[in-house]
Write a structure and sequence with these properties.
alpha+beta; 22% strand; seven-stranded antiparallel sheet; five-stranded antiparallel sheet
Length: 472
């Protein structure tokens, strides 16, 4: 009999795993790895969730490799977990039932670039930075920037977004078509390179955000953009978080085409100053970026400066020098590490929520008040142009009282966002960590529909079991 762990996740019999690993070893030889250190590297997590390594790792190099792994694992009833770069935050790459991890990093070829159509076809292991390096000489770029140098397959699977989402959208808006290996090893093609289609069910966006629970992405067709003529970065300090949020809301409502607008509360600014050697005023801060022609960028900056002053903003400075822009945004992307450096040895949990932009100021200020009441340290940073913000909670994992307060804070954060018409996660995904919040957000009927989709596409429950919606 199979052993049930982590709710309804069933671990296959040891003999089934051994048989699958033996068959994979014969097929992949030294590309099948079973050492403990490598297995643990393929299950790391930045949450407090325990590391749950797979039984083996296969280094895939082509689509046929994915198909072979899936067919062998399906034959023996063994789980399959796709792995890109491991930057997901809610336990998406954990293997609660063991199984085989397919590492896709070597499937990193850019297959086609259609500059005239502003799209390209790539393998799932291509990373965001590698793609943009390849595209730069053609005057093109891929705009979705979650901060980490994540793989595009992983970004698609978690429906990632990031700092550019306010202008360019999320992965949902930027994926045109996918090729996906289904549970029997055959390939589904979900769309074409056409910019729109009314042909059948929207299978592409069914797999975007599915976190590898419905199949494994083997190829992506994604949208590209032209590199703007002028890019300007700006920083503006505010007296209060509410003032910074109100400036954001007004900027969006008045139609200023912001490319990025990021909020750092005072605690986060202090952390970034210390870690990235900056000298920013240690008050709430907005980091912005404007894209367009030189005239358009100057006009956008001027208009936002006027709004900022109305909302209690201080000096508004901006620059078009690439090195200055890079320094500012690198500090923003290093926010997690800057928080970790505040208290060496402590645990850091990055969590996020998203609310309608009209409720953003209320949600952030109430969250700060909650942190004070609970005597917790959790700097706040957010993609506030779309109502999404992150808390990096710092706790001593050996201190039961502090951990209990931390768990209370995270629970209250989600409840607050949902009560304001928002969501338990704007971009980190559900994984294992936020399953308990789905029913309150979407209702039992929606969860049942998800289970039905999972059962239809993955009847054996071998694709990343135990994530999003547990299936028995």
């Amino acid at each position: 009999m199979a052993t049930t762990i982590s709710g309804s996740v069933k671990r296959p019999e040891p003999q089934a795993v051994a048989s699958a690993v033996e068959a994979l070893a014969a097929k992949f030889r030294n590309r099948l790895i079973t050492s403990q250190s490598v297995r643990e590297q393929h299950a790391h997590t930045t949450t407090w969730l325990p590391t749950q390594p797979p039984d083996a790792v296969v280094m895939a190099q082509e689509t046929q490799d994915i198909q072979d792994v899936v067919r062998i694992c399906a034959k023996h009833g063994v789980p399959v977990i796709a792995f890109g770069t491991g930057t997901s935050l809610e336990g998406q790459v954990n293997a609660p039932a063991g199984g085989v991890c397919i590492d896709l990093r070597d499937m990193n070829r850019i297959l086609e670039v259609h500059a005239e159509d502003l799209d390209c076809v790539i393998q799932p292991g291509v990373t965001r930075k590698a793609l943009n390096e390849h595209l730069r000489d053609q005057g093109l770029f891929f705009p979705i920037d979650p901060g980490a140098d994540a793989s595009l397959g992983g970004m698609t699977s978690t429906r990632a977004s990031g700092t550019n989402a306010v202008r360019y959208g999320t992965m949902r808006e930027n994926v045109l078509a996918l090729k996906v290996v289904r549970g029997d090893g055959e390939i589904i093609t979900t769309g074409t390179r056409a910019k729109k289609s009314s042909a059948g069910y929207d299978l592409t966006h069914l797999f975007v955000g599915a976190e590898g629970t419905l199949g494994i992405i083997s190829e992506l067709t994604i949208k590209l953009r032209g590199i703007p003529e002028t890019i300007a970065a700006a920083a503006c300090s505010f007296e209060t978080v509410r003032g910074a949020c109100q400036a954001t809301i007004l900027a969006i409502q008045t139609g200023i085409p912001l490319a990025r607008i990021e909020l750092l509360n005072a605690e986060q600014v202090r952390a970034c100053n210390a870690y990235s050697k900056l000298t920013l005023p240690e008050t709430p801060l907005l980091l912005l970026e404007f894209h367009g022609s030189e005239v358009e960028v100057a006009e956008q900056s001027k208009n936002f400066g006027e709004i900022a002053r109305e909302c209690g903003g201080g000096d508004f400075t901006w620059t078009t020098r690439p090195e200055d822009r890079t320094k500012l945004w690198q500090a923003r992307h290093d926010a997690y590490w800057s928080v970790k450096a505040l208290r060496p040895g402590a645990g850091v949990v990055a969590t996020d929520v998203c609310v309608p932009i009209s409720r953003l100021a209320d949600c952030v200020t109430e969250t700060e008040e909650d942190l004070k009441r609970l005597n917790l340290l959790s700097p706040i940073v957010g993609h506030v142009g779309d109502g999404n913000f992150h808390c990096s909670l710092v706790c001593d994992v050996d201190n039961k009282d502090e951990m209990a307060r931390g768990e209370e804070f995270m629970h209250r954060l989600v409840e607050r966002a949902q009560a304001m018409g928002g969501t338990c996660t704007g971009e980190h995904g559900i994984g294992q960590g936020k399953q308990k919040y789905l029913e309150a957000e979407l209702g039992v009927e929606a969860i049942d529909a998800m289970r039905a989709l999972k059962q239809a596409l993955d009847p054996q429950n071998i694709f990343n079991p135990g994530k999003i919606v547990p299936v028995g």
